């Protein structure tokens, strides 16, 4: 058996054991997660189908002086943009997965001690990273594919062709992600901190310079500017991008154009093969050096001294809680895999706020005003749900093999849950409350809308934190050290599903109340408007109370029973 | 100081500890011996409150470890076989965390940390991240964390892995001196020569049952031809030839 085959067989066996482990999970958890995933898939399908059908029915439109078939022009571009977004997500997630897999997994210590050729190792890592990246891409992309097939009345051959194109489509970003991880691990330990800060500064300034001309534009319009739409969508449809080849493969398959299908498939396959070959070379050249450089990074006396202010800042807390908070904060701040993902999330948030240029007052229809307000609250709540699921849910599991140390302390185990709940609530409220205020100010929301939005977001910080801490304690995974993998398990998926359900209900309550109050005010019924707002507040608080109490009770019960 | 009565622990169908009765007096150095899978670590984990007994009772200083865990834990210190600690804290920060968990007063804490770090020769690495330390250094840090709150009972599970001979000698001497000052030590080990050297009494567990209990000489007297403790151990714990 070749080394590559041996590694792949072992990886498959690991997957088999993990799949078998699902049978040992609680049925309730499996049913809730499966139902949630199906519902989410259906929502994505409905959105994709509605959008593609609207484009398909557009017919001929005037772009400048020319008559253009909007459907023919826009359909491949919409598919291409969706594919491009998936590929960007894949590159980032694969880079993180690859870093963990190359430099943080116990298996690598074993593999590097054996005479496995590094090129074989690179292919094994590529297969692993592509596999883990692919299932999420398939889940997110399949509603769009099916919707496209149905809208265009495509033949059945579209789906096997799409599956064939999907493999190289995933391999390309996976290989890029692996190379990014290897490059970062190769360069970062060699660069002084000052150089790294300067590099980050150059990237940020570059992004601002590139984006600045577009920040002044107002994108939201109540009437559609076809020429502008066609021009903007064309920017993402470059013939040099794999996402374009993938989209063109689907379009050609739907039209039964065999030659175009073959050409685009060959483009994808050839580039995937080249990316794999290139990754082999990069691995050969950098892996051992990067491994050694990371392992021999100097200790961090300076960092330790720098953080001495933290316990002083928390001086008002009782000692056990103070030091538990210090521990959680330092563990997070010193884990590049954690803070780098937080940095990416905050970068996306910054773009979101920078892109807000449409005030509800700038549009005339009440419907649009309501939608903009709702979307703003939803954005803040979704950020909170993402933050708590990604960073709070794994907190109990991350105690892992060190849980013995906390279990030995003369503290009730429930105090650990309270400490994590308040830490998470404070951090989430600071981020999402700030975001709600900032975005509300940028959008020029009316004071009542802003106040209700802020209250919803602050209440949700408590509810979502309780969900994440409670479910994290109910379904801990003490064997896994990688927070990303802890979150991607059944418990993490359940947490995200329930967080989404809570967020949707809270946002729906707010929308109904605001619409009610708007209509009531127009009819001169001020008391009814106030009652609508009060009802919204009551519903949000009730939902929050339920989302706080139920998971915390389950979490405390489980944590007090759990054996280490 | 430690009283184990009819302790049974099952993991599903597997019986790990079977009706174990044992008492360890204050100031005693007790060594717990047994082959792999005999039930030593399970007993220790029940004793420290990390596992719950299927039946039976364990008390430390008169406090039931299940019913009054916090009172029992105030008296206990535990050094595990694998020193899993917080890799992204420095040694000093880890000790500050432990001091916080045990509610030690802030006054004089810095001096106390320095003293315990010096005892285990960790002063030079106290400000390094735990993840950067060698296995032996982490093991010594476990000892330092254990003795920070001055426990009355210390439970040690196979502590010698990764320690250099000088450190082994130092830790051995330290534990022995502390037992003379009233500390109770409950130590599980496979290093029979050390057990023979330091133990006041020895217990040998095999397949979840206590096979032998007594001083080194009493244990040696249990076999027909007494030799070293190693020979006696091998004879007592040999599997039935089936």
Description of the molecule:
- The complex is a heterodimer of chains A (564) and B (242).
- Chain A is an all-alpha fold.
- Chain A folds into two domains: 26-295, no CATH class; 367-564, no CATH class.
- Chain A has 22 helices and two strands.
- Chain A has a two-stranded antiparallel ribbon with strand order 1-2.
- Chain B has a domain at 2-81 and 151-236: P-loop containing nucleotide triphosphate hydrolases (Rossmann fold), CATH 3.40.50.
- Chain B has helices spanning 40-47, 69-75, 91-101, 109-119, 135-147, 165-180, 192-198, 216-220, 229-236; strands at 2-11, 14-24, 29-33, 55-60, 63-64, 76-79, 153-157, 184-188, 201-206, 209-214.
- Chain B has a six-stranded mixed beta sheet with strand order 6-7-8-3-9-10, sandwiched between helices. A four-stranded antiparallel beta sheet of chain B has the order 2-1-4-5, with helices on one face.
- In chain B, a hairpin with a 2-residue loop joins strand 9 (201-206) and strand 10 (209-214).
- Chain B starts with a strand and ends in a 6-residue tail after the last helix.
- The mean pLDDT of chain B is 88.
- Classes of the chains: A mainly alpha (564), B alpha/beta (242).
What are the defining features of this structure?
heterodimer; A: about 575 residues; mainly alpha; 2 domains; two-stranded antiparallel ribbon; about 80% helix; about 0% strand; globular; B: about 240 residues; alpha/beta; Rossmann fold; 6-stranded mixed beta sheet; 4-stranded antiparallel beta sheet; 10 strands
Query: Given the structure, what is the number of helices of chain B?
Result: 9
Number of domains of chain A: 2
**Average pLDDT, all residues of chain A:** 82
Query: So what's the overall shape of chain B?
Result: globular
Q: How many individual β-strands of chain B?
A: 10
Distance separating the two termini of chain A: 39 Å
The helix content of chain A, as a percent range, equals over 70%
Main beta sheet of chain B: strand number and arrangement?
6 strands, mixed
- Strand arrangement within the widest β-sheet of chain A reads 1-2
Let me know the number of strands of chain A. Answer: 2
| Cα-atom radius of gyration of chain B | 18 Å
CATH superfamily of the domain at 2-81 and 151-236 in chain B: P-loop containing nucleotide triphosphate hydrolases
CATH class of the domain at 2-81 and 151-236 in chain B: Alpha Beta
Shape of chain A: globular
User: How are helices and strands ordered from N to C of chain B?
Assistant: EEEHEEHEHHHEHEHEEHH
